[in-house]
Design a protein that fits this description.
Elements (H helix, E strand, L loop, with lengths): L15 H4 L5 H11 L19 H8 L4 H7 L4 H7 L2 H4 L10 H13 L3 E9 L11 E5 L2 E6 L3 E6 L4 E6 L18 E7 L3 H4 L1 E8 L4 E7 L4 E7 L10 E7 L2 E6 L3 E6 L7 H11 L4 H6 L6 E7 L3 E11 L4 E11 L2 E13 L15 E2 L18 E9 L34 H4 L4 E5 L2 E5 L5 E8 L7 E3 L3 E3 L6 E6 L4 E6 L5 E5 L10 E4 L18 E3 L23 E7 L3 E7 L4 E8 L2
Antiparallel strand pairs: 1-31, 2-3, 3-4, 4-5, 6-7, 7-8, 8-9, 10-11, 11-12, 12-13, 13-17, 14-15, 15-16, 16-18, 19-20, 20-21, 21-22, 21-23, 24-25, 25-26, 26-27, 27-28, 29-30, 30-31
Amino acid sequence: MPVAKRKLSRDGAAAHEILDPHDTIERRAQRRRLHEPLSPPSLPPSRDIISALSDELVLRIFSFLDIKGLVDISPVSRRFCALAADSQLWRKDSDKEAVDWKRLYKLRHNWARGQCAVQEVQVSDHGGPQHPDGQTLLRVADGFAVTADLRYGVRAWDLRTGTMLARAGIDKTDDDGVGVGVGVSRPTAIALDVQGLAARRRMDVALGFEDGTFGLWRVDVARGTIEPAYRQGKGSHAAGPLVSVAYSHPYVMTGSGPGFISIFTFAGTGDSKAAAAAAAAEGAARQPQDREKALLPEPQLLRQLKSYYSRMPLALSITRAARCVTASAAYTFSAVGGWAIGVQDFCIRPARDRGRGGDNATNIINDNGNGNGNADDHDDDDDNDVVITSRVAYTSPMEAPRARRPAPECGRGCVCVCGYEGGGEGESESEKEGPTRLAYSHPYLLATMPDNTLVMHLVTGSADGGGGVSISRGMRLWGHTSAIADADVTPRGKAVSISLKGGELRVWELGGHAGRPRPSVEVRPRRGGPEDEGPGSGAGLGLGLGLGLGFWERSASSTPMPVDLADRTSWVGFDREMIVVLRVGLSGRENMVVYDFS
């Protein structure tokens, strides 16, 4: 039998798949792998492409890895070990609250450009001529506002929605819980304590009254309630109408027009025999229903001091440090050749730390308390006793500017800007001297001058109360073209000022480069907010520092928010996101104007 010839393929290989009937698919695949040439091994790249990448790109690549991947890649090199431990990669696994960086950037940008949305909230409508100093007191903190007046009592507002959260009467109340003002002294000063606002959504309000007393209220933002915490009895420590008050629990600091300054504490008053006797004496002046509602016992008077030649304005503040609490009073007084500004600090520490304080400086405000006049009075038998050390500093005398007559009209029909308005015929020469307002938030002291300028001072001293305190030379800030109504400043160096009429609002960055303040930004809001405006039609940016004038960016399609020139501004305050202005009309109507930069 003839043998079949092998059939060759094109490349000369035997065609086993056709001739071998027992061949399988696995055997054919095995033979194909054996006959195919092996691919050359993969070679490393000719250059290092990882080292050329920047740290930002490597961090971006690492951000897509999970925790196990970051741990595995960290031993590769020292650079990878350092980058894999970057806090930005592990931030998403942190227990802390996440930060909205885009929102913070937008907020900072709007502050720098003066872009904001604006809304008005009616506070009161008294229906009659307003009081020269205004009838409503206002303070702002973290998107909330607290107002106090004789007619409506204490009210809390949510500035983001413009709604009222709660209200309570000052003393006697009607059925709706609104103070009717029968036999109640008018509130003249207000302060907020926001230590528990972030954690417990609660803040405390301190009010000073015309009869020289003060009271405390507790605002629960979460529940929307206001409860009276303490009301001082009449005639206990009254020394004239209170013009300023500061509160940081357990310390309350009050200042009256005649020059009395008092420091109270609520710490440990329930266990002290002297406090019990004071509570029995002062509690008799309060009504029984008020004593039942009070949340705090009678405070202990730490110091009461009298100034014989200081005068208005007066600014009080309480600052907390690690070892002590500093109660500060900023005031003005007449000096040879003009006037000066003084700052006196009262450093309050427990009695066991009395050896850490510095030497006592000569007091401009003299001790008028129950002690012997020494600022270090203490009682070793009382565990709740504290040591108070006093230190004082003041500026060099400054000459007051002379009042000028109104500038005559020039040939073009315009009036030259004078910048200083003389007082009335009934005012004495001493009343025209010195600042009209003081704002003190350590270390920044801001004085509002009658010549349309601001003067900034830096107050420096040790945080633990040791050593002395000093005030730097004043730095004059120009920018306003009319009389300044009020100004406010924060410890971070941001300040806000507003004109008396016309609504000229300026934002200042006092902590500028090399200690020089940056040019101020004039805020010119539009109805509808910054998101409805283009880059050219945004809020006006007025820069002024040294000339008193600024440039104004305006688009043809946008118009500024209308401002009634007859309205008068009585107060300005701000927080991280908002500026709040209290505006008073001729009819006594009062509105909160909220400038929202978020």
